[in-house]
Amino acid sequence: MDLDEREIVSHRPEPSPGVLYIVGTPIGNLRDLSPRAEALLKRVSTIACEDTRHSGRWLKSIGVNAKFLSFYKHNTEKRLPQLLKKLEAKESIALISDAGMPGISDPGQKLVSAAKTSGYEVICIPGPCAAITALVSSGLPTERFCFEGFLPAKSKERKQVLQDISLEKRTSIIYESPNKLIKLLNELNEICGENRPIQISRELTKRFEEQIGPTIGEALSYFLNKKPIGEFTIVLGGAPEVSNPAINHDELLNSMKQLTNNGLSINQAAKIISNDTNYSKRFLYELAHTKTEKDS
Q1: For residue 129, which of 98, 119, 142, 230 sits 20 to 30 Å off, Cα-Cα?
Q2: pLDDT in tens, 80-106
Q3: First to last CA, the chain
């Protein structure tokens, strides 16, 4: 069976009544909207979107005249029963985000879950995704990876997540806003070391697309000299393999002791050794303090 035959066999009228469609939209370049997605958006009863003004402008520019209904983090609980009633009334609904695939770091997942729990069909019209676009263009391992999205703001929870990321062997993908990027890079530099591979992408698919790296230290230096602008997708290389680290603890402590005996602080000594080994600065710092507490 060739491609044309497969398309004929698998085709069904879209949109169908009482179906929720998850529709991927462009993350920058409007030409990335698929013909299938465009055709469906022009025919559904309602389009649920994060920002009706933002989405409404470009959708109307391509001839979409459906009813728009806002659906975002702070009105999710109010909108869920309204959208389920529309499905019950055999309306077709398209769920979109401001950019990319709905349900990734937005409340779309709750609507999908509610629709499926209530017995309604959910169909995905695939499209661009910033996380995958940044990952495959990074040159970092793609065989196994984990998506972190936006990190927690609360200090205790954030510290734990960052610690987990620093030890993660798989490539990690993180989203960050411009006003918090330098803080995050400082945290990653502290816990992962300045030599950990990284690629920071902005303006993906647009004219001024940028990819900054290739290490945490170099990326931090870049943004300390150039104000971060736009939303960022960060692809962080996994933690390097360390063979039997317990065997090396005494050697590491001796190296730390030599440096501190020469007048360096524990923090300075940890940074130097971190640059020469696969151990993070934070690990070395905590190792030294644990040893000090045991000896006291």
Answers
A1: 119
A2: 999 999 999 999 999 999 899 998 888
A3: 76
pLDDT at residue number 280 = 74
List, in sequence order, every residue forming a beta bridge with 197; answer none if it has no partner. 215
Cis, peptide link before residue 141, omega less than 30° from 0: no
Give the DSSP letter string of 32-83. GS-HHHHHHHTT-SEEEES-HHHHHHHHHHTT--PEEEE--GGGHHHHHHHH
Residue 86 gets which letter from DSSP?
A: H
Rounded CA gap, 30 and 9, in Å? 30
Query: What is the DSSP code string of 125-180?
Result: E----HHHHHHHTT-S--SSEEEEEEPPSSHHHHHHHHHHHHH--SEEEEEE-GGG
Tell me the C-alpha to C-alpha distance, in Å, between residue 10 and each of 1, 5, 7, 43: 12, 9, 5, 20
Q: How far apart are CA 98 and CA 55, in angstroms?
A: 6
Rounded to the nearest 5°, which phi and psi values hold at 19? -115, 140
Work out the pLDDT band at 227, boundaries 50, 70, 90: very high
Mean of per-residue pLDDT scores for the chain: 88
Token duo for residue 56: 């409404």
Residue 261 — very low, low, confident or very high, per pLDDT cuts 50/70/90?
Answer: confident
**Residue type present at position 281:** K
Q: Which residue, among 156, 150, 210, 211, has the nearest Cα to 184 in the 3D structure? A: 150
φ, ψ at 121 (rounded to 5°): -75, 140
Question: Which candidate, 150, 20, 13, 1, places its Cα nearest to that of 80?
Answer: 20
